[in-house]
Every structure is written in structure tokens, then in C-alpha cells.
Amino acid sequence: MTEGSIENAFFQQGDVAAHLLLSSGDKPRILVAFPAGDSGAGIWFEPTVARVRWTLGPVTGQTRTVDGHPLNGIVAQATVTGDTLVIKDAVLGSIRVLRDYQLGQGYAAQVAATPGIVAAPELTERSVRWQRQRLDGAPGYAIALSTNDGRFVREDGHIVLHPDHAGEAVHLRIEAGTGETPLTPFTDLLNDQALPDERSHDALQFLSYREKFLAGSWRFDTYFGRDTLMSLRLLMPVLQPAAVDAGIGSVLARLSSDGQVAHEEGIGEFAVLQHLKEQGKPSVDPIYDYVMVDDDYMLPAVAAAWLLDDPRGRANAGAFLASKRGDQRQGDALVRNLLFVAHSSEAFAKQPVYSNLVSLKPDAKVGQWRDSNEGIGRGRYPYDVNAVWMPAALRAIGQFLDAGLLDDYTTPAQREQLRTAARSAGDWEQHASALFTVHLPKDRAAQQVRDYAKEIGVADAPALKALGDSALEFPAISLDAQGQPVPVLHSDEGFRLLFGKPDAAVLDRNVGNLMRPFPAGLMTDVGMVVANPAYAGHDVWSRFGNNAYHGTVVWAWQQAILAAGLKRQLARDDLPASTRTHLETAQAELWRGICAAGSMRTSELWSWSYANGHYRIEPFGAEGAHEDESNAAQLWSTVFLALPPPAGQSCR
């Protein structure tokens, strides 16, 4: 897959799974990421005067024995043209350390604290190799370059690659491997309902293992709770039952003792580093991060979608809950989470004031999927967690109780506690939603759009026309610490369409808000942006730019959430004809945007540029102008395998 200046290649066979990236341009890079142990190896080069261009040749698997242990990896052939290459650094170990190096965050401090993470180069005229053990002495990591038409020499403290003949291409053999324990790919992942999209299928296959699903590659080659749950929910119709069971089981296995869902795991050498830092001794025991709050409330709704709503999951629900993963029954783990949700709901159910909502954790700046520091506009109480996920979780608890599936895992007192919580779902949704409502007079809304469009250099006429003559009302992205709405328009309303049952008036209003042309709504020529700060204060605008990870950028999975939500609402039989027509129009418009960005369909996110009245796709991070880098293969961007366009539309 080519995205901007980055060439990506994925390899998965037997014990080998690897993702190779070759970055062209004036900041060349070679990077190999391995799902095994969330490990990798990368070579960064000094900035070049002339732009460097990589051309990738064949990639094959390789297993070699080092000190009696297998090192699983790849061999790739590549050609590089454009300039002499000066090696800046080679970094081997945890992907999280490579990520920090890429972002310029903390790598030097990590080296100072643990010099053993640096591998010394082994240099010959035609090759250079870096190899080391894991910090605890276990099999480690290696990366090597070799050539027959170039020379590696030391100059001024750096290793430099010169072509044998100035101006000519250099052919390189790239080898990389990891000694971390390999994962087990699924051999039967999808059923015959999956759409025939080879690129999405391959990306999903690379990210799917019996032990866990990976969030995305190269940057998140391990378990993430939210990514697993949302991807399972959207892919559920086309996944084989064993894959859904494995995914939900991976979430249950990582719950905290009080039932919170693990957001991320630290494994492999990252776990060793953390244990060394905190306990002074190496250990490879996984470390789980529970800072997020949204995934705690996603689990009940997704588990109910499989174990109660899907006939395949329902047929095996009793056996699934009774089965053990490790030393616990999966039903016991699920109940732990349900009791956590019930307890968390009690204060607001008794007194529906903002301070009793679910907030970010103390001292945490993030807590839901928009997990960058500016993601929810510096708010403390996220809209989706309180207006969507909590009510959905409480309704799921009621469903599990009604089905009798919790009887073997709860006491009568616990079932009563759960039942009381489940009864509060409607009040939670009503009162929480009201607290997030933003009202803007029509003239002020129009002026905000004019000013913002001028600020960012896009046309305002289509947006102003779509605003119409009515006042504007929409749910805020969050509440601040004083309970005031943060007036950023956002895509999280899609969650309510997928997991809730809004009345017709709410559907008409909130879907209409999203589908207006940006910057009045969220729609552009290249898809739906996930946030629009036009209605917020001017100081907020720059924090939500199209260079920001959760700014005015397009995330594939958020479009999928809305597409699936619209489909679910259109399946209802209690909506008036006018609302159905409105939803069908929105569905068609959304899919036009989805299809327009088909070339980016497995990517995590993308940005845009604007010229001559049109928006144009810009790969996020590929040219170094954005605050982070997008994954070429993202788990929840493969979910369109289960989402065909509506009748009469096609992305081909």
C-alpha cells in the first residue's frame, strides 16, 4: 500500500508477521513492525538535500536461529535513489519506544536510563547490522542492510551509504527479525457475507489473531480495548463465531479487578522497561492501562449485540460464559464489568447534575476515543460516554437479566443492584443529553461560520445556505469542569444511531447538523470530518485544525459508525415518512463521501487541502506536516467489509 511518500508492505505466514515501511522524501526511514511482542526495528536517516525515492521489490519470510532461539522476520529487496544516505539512528525493541523516537518524545531519556536498549552497529564495506537481546536476556531484535552496489563508511561519527557510482540507484537487501513469541493468525476469519475487498481483507487478516486483535500497524501492533470492541460490533455480521468469541474473550481477560476495560497493554520489552523503572527488576508480565472511561461502557452493549441479538452468538451464549480463559469463567468477568457500570450510574440516577456524570479520571486529559490532549476541547465530561454509552450499557444489563444469562454468576442482591441500574437507562439518556445541548441564534451561527471559513480558507456559501433560517441546536463534544458545554460539532452522534433509539425529532435535527457542508456541518468532498470548531470561540479553532489528530480530519471508522447507525435507524418501523426520507438522503450523501476516499479505506485517518472550490485528500502524517502519523492498516477501518453501500450506490 502506498500512502503519500510511504510505501507499506505486509507479510504474514506461519510464525512470521511483519509490516515494512519505506519513507521517501527528505526524511528517509526504514521501519519494520512485528505483532509479536509489539516489537520492531527502524533505521532513521539524516534529512537529505535531494528527495530520496524508494522502490520496493519482493518481500519474503525468514526464520534464523540466534543463540539457539528462532528470530522470525522478513527479507526485502529495495532500490533507493536520490542522495547519499547518512544514518542518524537505529532503534530496536518495543514499538512504543520506536513511536516515541518518531515523535521526538522521551527516547533520549529512555536511553540515558537504560543504555542497553541501544544496539551497536556491526559494519563492513557492503553491510551494516544491529542486533541485541531483549533487556531481560530473552531473544531480541535485529535489522540489517546489505548491498552489492554501494559502500557503508564511517564519516564524522556517522555511518554513510554511498553508491558505487554517483547518481545511480543503490539496491539494498533489508533483513529484520524479532525473538518475541509469535501470535496465531486465524485460518478461517470471515464468512461468505464479507464484501470482496482484497485490500481490506488483507489488512484485517494481518491484524487478527486468536490471542487478540491488533488496533493498527505500524504504531499500535497490539491489543486496544475500544478498537477491539467497536471493530467487533461493526464486523460482527461477517466474522466467524470463533473470531467474535476470541475478541470478546480478549477484553474480558484483561479487565481490572473491579471490572474496568483495559485500554492498552504494555508487553514485550516495554513491559520489561516499565518493571525496571517501577520495581527495579525486569519482568515481562503485561501492564494494562485503565485510563480510558468509554470502553468500560462499550463492553456491555457489544457483548449483548453478540450474545443476545445475534442468533449465532445467542445459540452459544451459555457455553461461552461458562468457559474459562485462564483461571476465571468468562461470565464472572462480564458480571464484574456490569457491576462496575451499575455502581458508576448510581449518583447521576439519584441526582442528575453535571458533577455526577462520568468524567475523565483525575489528572487525566483523555478518556475516550478522541485521546489527544485537545480531542474533546479540554472538556472533562465526554458527550458519548454519558449520553450514549452509559444508557446503552444500562439497557444491555437489563437484556442480560431478562435472558437469565447472569443467574449462575450473581447473587440475588447483585441482580437487584443490576436491575435498579437498568431501570435508570431512560432517565440517564434524557437528563444527560439535556446537559450537553448547545443553542445558537441563527445570526450568530451564520457569523461564526463566515468567520471560521475565512480563517481556514474555504468557501462559506454552501455551508451558509445549508444553515437555513432556524436557530442551531446540537450536542456539545463535552462539558468543561464547570459543566458548561464545549460547542464543537462532532461525529459521535453516530454512536447514538448505532446503539440507541432516538425519536424522530432528534434524528431529524442531529443528523441534519452532521450532514451540512463543512464548515457548517461535517461533510466535505473527501468524507466526514470528525470535529468542527466553527461554533466555538476563536481560540479553539487552531486546536482543531486539519493537522490535528482529532481535528477537522476524516477517520474511516467514524464514517462506518454513522453508516451502520443510519442503516439501523432505517430498519425501524416507527419513524414517519419525512424522517425516513431525511435519513435516506443523509445515507446517500455520506456514502458519496466514503466512496470518494476509497483509496484510503484501510487507513486510520486522512486530512485534506482545499483549492478551486474542492477538498482534496492528504495522507495524514505522510509528509511530516501533521502532529502524528496515520496507520496504513487500522482495525476499525476494515469494517466496511460488513457495510455494503445502500441500494443504487456503488464505490466501484
Mind explaining what this structure looks like?
With 652 residues, this protein is α+β, with helices and mostly antiparallel strands. The chain is built from 20 helices and 32 strands. It has an eight-stranded antiparallel β-sheet. A six-stranded antiparallel β-sheet has the order 6-7-14-11-10-9, with no helix packed on it. It has a three-stranded antiparallel β-sheet with strand order 20-23-24. It is globular. 52% of the residues are buried. The model has no long low-confidence stretch (mean pLDDT 96).
Summarize the structure.
It contains 20 helices and 32 strands. By secondary structure, the protein is α+β, with helices and mostly antiparallel strands.
Radius of gyration: 25 Å
Mind describing the biggest β-sheet?
A: 8 strands, antiparallel
Proportion in β-strands: 15-25%
Helix content: 25-40%
Per DSSP E runs of 2 or more residues, the count of β-strands stands at 32
State the secondary-structure class: alpha+beta
Number of DSSP helical runs? 20
The geometry reads as globular
**Main β-sheet, spatial strand arrangement:** 1-2-3-4-5-8-13-12
Uncertain parts: none
Instruction: Give the distance, in angstroms, between the N- and C-terminal Cα atoms.
Output: 18 Å
Average pLDDT over all residues: 96
Topology summary:
Layout: E1 2-3, E2 6-13, E3 16-23, E4 29-34, E5 39-45, E6 53-66, E7 69-81, E8 85-94, H1 95-103, H2 107-113, E9 121-123, E10 127-132, E11 141-147, E12 150-155, E13 158-163, E14 170-178, H3 198-207, E15 216-217, H4 225-235, H5 241-253, E16 264-266, H6 268-279, E17 287-289, H7 294-309, H8 311-315, H9 317-322, E18 324-325, E19 328-329, H10 330-350, E20 381-382, H11 383-403, H12 412-423, H13 425-435, E21 437-440, H14 442-456, H15 461-467, E22 472-475, E23 478-479, E24 485-486, E25 489-490, H16 493-499, H17 504-515, E26 523-524, E27 527-528, E28 531-532, H18 538-541, E29 554-555, H19 556-570, H20 577-596, E30 605-611, E31 614-619, E32 633-634
Antiparallel strand pairs: 1-2, 2-3, 3-4, 4-5, 5-8, 6-7, 7-14, 8-13, 9-10, 10-11, 11-14, 12-13, 15-32, 16-17, 18-19, 20-23, 21-22, 23-24, 25-28, 26-27, 29-30, 30-31
